[in-house]
Write a structure and sequence with these properties.
Strand content: 25-35%
Distance between the termini: 26 Å
Largest sheet: 4 strands, antiparallel
Radius of gyration: 16 Å
Strand order of the largest sheet: 1-2-3-8
Number of helices: 2
């Protein structure tokens, strides 16, 4: 079941307070993905995202997804503290109403060359495009529906690639 977020020109799958399970652009809108050359600390990443969206003539409510990188996995308490800080900016931008958050999110803790603090890797926003093909972003924890649970169950270690086994690796969505 999706909910409409007209202020951002997209709809979303409700999940937990810190993120939605995914977003899809309205008809005649597309989702534009912006990836930074290097991870950008959270506050600076929000500022850059705002500049880029406003420069493209879009409101801050067009912000629909973000891809974060963190130095290590959070404890349950640490994750909640981080999220309470994170949603403050979303609330200031008119995205988070204190309960419902339409923004999809992933948060990866890279084993190799992790950032020194939680940082933006990329973000997505909606923009008008007549006749746009459907576009969407799925959150990193799209299966999370809320409620109490063990955060450690959400942590997943991916197997290391074996030489010659994969010919190409990269994002599965976005631009």
């Amino acid at each position: 079941m999706t909910r409409d977020f007209p202020a951002g020109n997209y709809r979303f799958i409700p999940a937990v307070f810190q993120y939605s399970s995914g977003v899809a652009a309205h008809p005649d809108f597309e989702i534009e993905r912006v990836r930074f050359d290097n991870p950008v600390p959270l506050a600076d990443g929000f500022a850059l995202a705002a500049d880029i969206m406003l420069g493209a003539g879009r409101p801050l409510t067009a912000f629909c997804a973000c891809e974060l990188r963190s130095p290590a996995a959070f404890s349950e308490d640490g994750f909640r503290t981080f999220n309470e800080h994170y949603v403050k900016t979303l609330a200031q931008w008119g995205l988070f109403d204190g309960t419902v958050n339409p923004v999809a999110r992933s948060n990866v803790c890279p084993e190799i060359d992790p950032p020194s603090e939680p940082s933006f890797y990329a973000f997505s926003f909606s923009r008008p495009l007549l006749g746009a093909k459907p576009s969407f972003v799925i959150a990193g924890g799209a299966e999370s529906r809320g409620g109490a649970g063990d955060l450690s169950r959400a942590h997943r270690a991916l197997p290391r690639p074996q030489p010659g086994r994969f010919s190409r690796q990269g994002p599965l969505y976005g631009r």
